[in-house]
Amino acid sequence: MTSEEIIKMAFELGNAVAQSEEIEGLKASQARVTQDHIAYDLIMSYQDAKSKMENKLQDGLSIGQAEQANLKNLEQELKSNSIINELMAAQEKFDNLMQAVYFAMNQALSGGCSSGCDSCGGSCNM
Description:
The protein is 78% helix and 0% strand. It is mainly alpha-helical. The longest helix is centred in the C-terminal third of the chain and has 29 residues, at 82-110. The chain is elongated.
């Protein structure tokens, strides 16, 4: 098989993933988050607080209890927001799809599953 054929197949795989239920669900959830100001602001606040804490840690500075409490409160608010939970579930479904794709590719590269799907649990459905 030529490099061009492999690249063409990779492009076809990318198109298939782009048309999957998982990516459609992820895009829809992302759109809902950006349309909901509370959810969007909550994510931005959390990312900002977490980034500031990480920067302090990298600079060797200590993190105050108020900063830690603020981050924990933001985490709790994230967990209790249904729109954000929907986004996290959609992201997990997409991540699982991509892990399955990588697993199948690795199995093909390593010659795995040569004794049938029972040898790897049948997750690649080959």
